[in-house]
């Protein structure tokens, strides 16, 4: 290291190398950033939403998908960590794909990701209505469901308008609610309320009938695949985190580890405490978790859990909305969206992209209205969100591997070193494996039901391609692209990792 040359660039200088000014308030700490990603991933929401489906599809052994997918997504998180360490800028998937490949490639990755995020916000708001109804003894009707879902969205918007500091505070409250709701309750059920032997996790309990269990087990992969995304949100707010190049990779990895452990405790606790496990596996109990909690925690304990779960749902919607708004802002800042000047404005007081936040609230609200008109739309649009997220993720993973093969060595503070290419290749292989599982059509015999994921993704991709080649949004943007090797070289020069020989005078 040369004397007087910093080991790492400070936040302002790092942004300057990337072509941007430091215009946000860096008030989010490592723990606030981790809380944002964790509450987006939300093991409480994931386990509650899929517990009955997982058991009726794959039986108790479906719990192993939590471990399998956690390991696969950790590979993806490590790749993302190297990328965000070199490119700690708002928007996550979009700027990463742009700087690793190019404008059109990034536009498609972000287009798919934006719609998947909007649908995910909608789904979480809709699923959370059941907790409100149970807590206050309300009978859910389509109209009441719509009102509660819109209430979630508007409450999140109001909190997000106040600024990054409050976003971090509420995310931390959501983090504690999640940990109490999943690890606390899970451990209590495991230690004091066990009604089944641990051997059930190796017992299919007849879900495959007379056929092979392999098909049933792979069908239950949704147990983990639906759960493990959200860690990328840590990078969506990079310009609001102090020292993001070092902290965000750590926050992403923490999100996967703590999320995985939490989900395992929670899922295992419910299974082992279920007094009617065989009935749940046979699909005779539509919503088993409230009954399990009622029988183990009592009426008062179940109500307390509902309050904790409600806090987790609110925090999840808040984190999703914040992440989506930063992606929209980043997209618009580069001139890649209609109305980009309006969408890229940052509030002078709260230092957040208010207009992008309005869009991140309005679009899910419109989806909620569509679900009010036809409640059968909730499952199809939720199914699209999962595959859409994985497509966008793997577009970044593929772009990173392409740059490595061209000679890119990531220059951020977080680096995998010689293991980078190996981990990157393994992450891509895992992504292909996940695609195959997610894209396998159902076997109900109903074309729409069996191919709804393919139809949803196809519609979004075709619409995106038509707009891309008709309106040419990429032609309106002159922001940098495909510069991974160049930026890495400049960072190394500025930090003394790469010396440039002087000419002889």
Automatic annotation (TrEMBL):
One of its GO terms (cellular component) is membrane. The chain crosses the membrane at residues 30-51, 63-84, 105-125, 131-158, 170-191, 211-231, 251-273, 304-331, 352-373, 379-401, 422-439, 451-470. The keyword Membrane applies. It is found in: Membrane. The keyword Membrane applies. Keywords: Membrane, Transmembrane, Transmembrane helix, Transport. Its main location: membrane. GO terms for molecular function: transmembrane transporter activity. This is Amino acid permease. PANTHER family: AMINO-ACID PERMEASE BAT1, OS04G0435100 PROTEIN.
């Amino acid at each position: 290291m040369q004397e007087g040359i910093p080991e790492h660039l400070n936040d302002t200088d790092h942004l300057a190398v990337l072509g941007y000014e430091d215009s946000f308030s860096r008030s989010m700490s490592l723990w606030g950033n981790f809380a944002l990603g964790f509450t987006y991933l939300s093991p409480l929401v994931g386990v509650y939403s899929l517990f009955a489906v997982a058991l009726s599809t794959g039986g108790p052994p479906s719990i192993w998908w939590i471990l399998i997918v956690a390991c696969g997504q950790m590979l993806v998180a490590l790749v993302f960590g190297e990328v965000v360490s070199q490119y700690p800028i708002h928007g996550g998937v979009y700027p990463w794909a742009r700087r690793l490949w190019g404008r059109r490639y990034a536009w498609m990755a972000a287009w798919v990701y934006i719609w998947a995020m909007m649908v995910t916000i909608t789904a979480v708001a809709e699923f959370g209505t059941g907790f409100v109804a149970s807590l206050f003894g309300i009978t859910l009707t389509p109209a009441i469901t719509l009102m509660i879902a819109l209430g979630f969205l508007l409450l999140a918007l109001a909190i997000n308008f106040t600024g990054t500091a409050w976003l971090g505070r509420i995310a931390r409250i959501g983090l504690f609610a999640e940990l109490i709701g999943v690890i606390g309750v899970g451990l209590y059920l495991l230690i004091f309320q066990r009604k089944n032997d641990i051997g059930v996790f190796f017992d299919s309990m007849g879900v495959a009938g007379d056929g092979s269990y392999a098909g049933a087990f792979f069908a239950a992969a949704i147990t983990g695949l639906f759960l493990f995304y959200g860690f990328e949100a840590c990078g969506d707010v990079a310009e609001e985190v102090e020292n993001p190049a070092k902290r965000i990779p750590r926050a992403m990895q923490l999100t996967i580890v703590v999320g995985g452990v939490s989900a395992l405790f929670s899922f295992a606790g419910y299974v082992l405490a279920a007094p009617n496990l065989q009935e749940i596996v046979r699909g005779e109990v539509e919503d088993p978790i409230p009954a399990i909690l009622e029988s183990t925690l009592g009426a008062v304990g179940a109500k307390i859990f509902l309050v904790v779960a409600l806090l987790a749902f609110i925090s999840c919607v808040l984190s999703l909305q914040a992440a989506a708004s930063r992606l929209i802002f980043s997209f618009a800042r580069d001139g890649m969206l209609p109305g980009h000047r309006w969408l890229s404005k940052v509030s002078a007081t709260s230092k957040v992209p208010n207009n992008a936040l309005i869009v991140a609230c309005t679009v899910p609200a419109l989806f909620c209205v569509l679900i009010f008109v036809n409640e059968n739309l909730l499952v199809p649009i939720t199914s699209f969100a999962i595959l859409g997220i994985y497509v966008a993720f793997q577009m970044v993973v593929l772009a990173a591997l392409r740059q490595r093969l061209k000679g890119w060595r990531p220059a951020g503070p977080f680096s995998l070193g010689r293991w980078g290419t190996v981990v990157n290749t393994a992450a891509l292989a895992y992504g292909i494996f996940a695609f195959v599982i997610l894209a396998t059509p159902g076997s109900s015999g109903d074309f729409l039901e069996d191919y709804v994921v393919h139809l949803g993704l196809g519609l979004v991709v075709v619409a995106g391609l038509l707009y891309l080649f008709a309106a040419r949004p990429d032609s309106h943007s002159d922001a940098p692209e495909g510069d991974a090797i160049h930026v890495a070289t400049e960072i190394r020069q500025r930090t003394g990792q790469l010396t440039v020989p002087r000419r002889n005078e």
